Amino acid sequence: xxxxxxxxxxxxxxxxxxxxxxxxxxxxxxxxxxxxxxxxxxxxxxxxxxxxxxxxxxxxxxxxxxxxxxxxxxxxxxxxxxxxxxxxxxxxxxxxxxxxxxxxxxxxxxxxxxxxxxxxxxxxxxxxxxxxxxxxxxxxxxxxxxxxxxxxxxxxxxxxxxxxxxxxxxxxxxxxxxxxxxxxxxxxxxxxxxxxxxxxxxxxxxxxxxxxxxxxxxxxxxxxxxxxxxxxxxxxxxxxxxxxxxxxxxxxxxxxxxxxxxxxxxxxxxxxxxxxxxxxxxxxxxxxxxxxxxxxxxxxxxxxxxxxxxxxxxxxxxxxxxxxxxxxxxxxxxxxxxxxxxxxxxxxxxxxxxxxxxxxxxxxxxxxxxxxxxxxxxxxxxxxxxxxxxxxxxxxxxxxxxxxxxxxxxxxxxxxxxxxxxxxxxxxxxxxxxxxxxxxxxxxxxxxxxxxxxxxxxxxxxxxxxxxxxxxxxxxxxxxxxxxxxxxxxxxxxxxxxxxxxxxxxxxxxxxxxxxxxxxxxxxxxxxxxxxxxxxxxxxxxxxxxxxxxxxxxxxxxxxxxxxxxxxxxxxxxxxxxxxxxxxxxxxxxxxxxxxxxxxxxxxxxxxxxxxxxxxxxxxxxxxxxxxxxxxxxxxxxxxxxxxxxxxxxxxxxxx
Amino acid sequence: xxxxxxxxxxxxxxxxxxxxxxxxxxxxxxxxxxxxxxxxxxxxxxxxxxxxxxxxxxxxxxxxxxxxxxxxxxxxxxxxxxxxxxxxxxxxxxxxxxxxxxxxxxxxxxxxxxxxxxxxxxxxxxxxxxxxxxxxxxxxxxxxxxxxxxxxxxxxxxxxxxxxxxxxxxxxxxxxxxxxxxxxxxxxxxxxxxxxxxxxxxxxxxxxxxxxxxxxxxxxxxxxxxxxxxxxxxxxxxxxxxxxxxxxxxxxxxxxxxxxxxxxxxxxxxxxxxxxxxxxxxxxxxxxxxxxxxxxxxxxxxxxxxxxxxxxxxxxxxxxxxxxxxxxxxxxxxxxxxxxxxxxxx
Lengths: 656, 346
What we know:
The structure holds two protein chains of two kinds.
Chain A: E1 4-7, H1 18-23, E2 26-32, E3 38-45, E4 59-64, H2 70-88, H3 97-117, H4 125-142, H5 147-158, H6 164-172, H7 182-191, H8 195-204, H9 207-210, H10 215-227, H11 239-255, H12 261-274, H13 277-283, H14 287-298, H15 305-312, H16 322-332, H17 335-345, H18 347-359, H19 377-389, H20 396-405, H21 409-419, H22 427-440, H23 443-459, H24 463-472, H25 476-493, H26 502-509, H27 516-521, H28 523-536, H29 540-551, H30 558-568, H31 582-598, H32 601-614, H33 633-655
Antiparallel strand pairs in A: 2-3, 3-4
Helix pairs in contact in A: 2-3, 2-18, 3-4, 3-18, 4-5, 4-16, 4-17, 4-18, 5-14, 7-8, 7-12, 8-10, 10-11, 11-12, 13-14, 14-15, 16-17, 17-18, 17-19, 18-19, 19-20, 20-21, 20-22, 22-23, 23-24, 24-25, 25-28, 28-29, 29-30, 30-31, 30-32, 31-33
Chain B: E1 4-5, E2 12-17, E3 23-28, E4 32-38, E5 47-54, E6 60-65, E7 73-78, E8 83-88, E9 100-106, E10 113-118, E11 126-131, E12 135-140, E13 151-157, E14 172-176, E15 185-190, E16 193-199, E17 205-210, E18 218-223, E19 232-238, E20 243-250, H1 253-263, E21 282-290, E22 297-302, E23 308-313, E24 317-322, E25 330-336
Antiparallel strand pairs in B: 2-3, 3-4, 4-5, 6-7, 7-8, 8-9, 10-11, 11-12, 12-13, 14-15, 15-16, 16-17, 18-19, 19-20, 20-21, 22-23, 23-24, 24-25
């Protein structure tokens, strides 16, 4: 792997000024985004010495290392859709081989169309190209109807020859046989099974005139080229055709003793058709060209492929690039090794190919594979690809889906670590992830996802929606937590804060329409809402009833209690003595004791200050802070104590 | 995604994303912390200032986010020897300077605090700190929703305070293991020593394996997300100009008890908590040592899947190291802060 160097956009160090920058005691720091291959770099000090700060040093410099384009990511999603089809088949072992071939064919089609589309994109096209070449061969060998035909197709797609230019030049040259590369062209056509091109060239040539003795031979060759049919997958060549080739070979030796150009070339051509090892290998430019020709013309028995390779290898370099290594392994039948190599070229193709190989029983012989001690090659490659998918939002869900398909503890661990980082944009997204959590029994993760999504709804002023969502996924703790947060918000800021929340209003107005768990959890918030209604109506009796319910509510968070007690301050005194009976005052006292021991006074002080800013100044009875002279929580408590003593006395007076 | 001006008035020392990457906090020598929110409307990648506030009485060295489970909470540490916890107050207006309320001050350090880090959420609300007094401290908010009270649950001198060392040469760092399937553990770098601290079966933290070979101060350590791997990875950035990657493979009990006897660090005071009593031990293997920066390396950072490591340093370059899931790490790209086509900015 060669590291390429790029510069940051608007790079802060001038060209050739790195040394000066370093002498100023500067260094570069970097932090990744928590879920993407992006991050920010910034300039910091490396020495701690004071050096004049420059303006560009307050910048964060964006780094984007996501090498795949959206088109490629669409390919990743499309491939997953194809793989997912196989999961629809209920019985894992019973899946029809032909159906798997169809899926594999879909994979190849997707590869081909993507290959065309991403030619000019910054995607790592070399690796993708190598992967496509490899998977095509895998398809030819294990997922096609006829290996011989597929092998020839694969050879012709991998390095297309003869080129269109060659073809045009040969056929337009007059006479074609005088074209210097006529015979190499002819051999190339025959070696690669492109008989129609060879026939076309012969027909426009003047071979018969050039060497009249060869005319009959030429006719027989034309007949052979016309009547050739690909060997069947059972490894049988057309016997009749084979006999004709051998007869022709013998006749040619008997008739053409001369060494004229045409005769020599025709004899060579016939040797190719006979499947002669030396001739084919010497005429081939690449090992795969030779291999295909040997397979097609010598003996189309798959088990002989390793033998062919061993004969070709000393003459033609076999494993010079990565895909050739993988192809070599495929042809040798070493599927796991080939898939592992495919994994280093393109994880999406490798994962899908491994899945299909597994479905076809091709991996049954492989039990263990290196990366995951307890997993197989399929699991390993799917894991690897799933983890790649988790680096980008477009493919997060694809990654999670792949992880779900791998029955490994490692996959569950990876899902657990990654699922909580997936950004949520809708309730549907959240529900999908929660379903995955449910399937994989990831309880903590389900909790985090619920917290995240309901938080997001809460901060976008959809409190009712957030409570409904938490209830819908049966996370009652979260329902309560959201309710108390809304309660605090409403208590501090006022009831108008939720005026625009239609769902919350509906819950208040018709609680019976809500699920029981919401009805139960929402009680304090509903009572607080009633308190505000009573305040607007200046209904003292209702205000005091609501406040008593709230301060005596058993699960009310302690830090809220003092604020509720503050709300009582305006209603203490002779005017309200008949409504604040002794038992009420006793409740206040008990509550105040709780405040003293459990509440952070600093917090309350801050909130009370906020109250002063937000409470409607014209509503005298609400403005409890006007009754308090000291601006601290301690002052509030002191004031409350004084008021309570007075209220107790008033109660006794009232009773006597 | 594009460059943006934080408007700090001095050098930035740390940048921290929140859990989902939707908020960003920065801290600086100007003693302030700034919080930015991602403008999520219509695919925008603009960062909008949420608030800026003076956090400390000296340079703020680190800023970190707590998991959102605990609310919108950040912690900062500083050369003023304190750690502070701040909580967002919903009803304070943005950019008012009051949006982030200081809820706790942890003043235990006897020297500048260099690094802090919140433990992964499954361990509760814990904060580890390492500073110039050579001491690792772990705090815990016993009631995670009450951020006012933090207990110091662990304190240990990792290395004695260096005498006469230049301040710039000394550095202290730490990083938690995020896997909920692994024991509670963190890697701590103090000067040139690097250790794993782990909570053992008796519920105490203990100093365990050493990650050896550093010949300068450790500028940063980073524990990789494990993503289901059967082993752990830890990366270190060092003053000796090297990026190192260590592989930590779990040992069997028998192996680990034998290894424990032979590998107990002889330079450390053998206190009760030096010798681990837990069941979990690792074989430590250096699987990558790279000197490509040819200059001090200050930062190492793992991507979310623990497959790409970024390192940055005095050479003004970020180097990205990648491995196929189990293969060797190789430098896959270099991002330079040096402008290659103009003599513009510096």
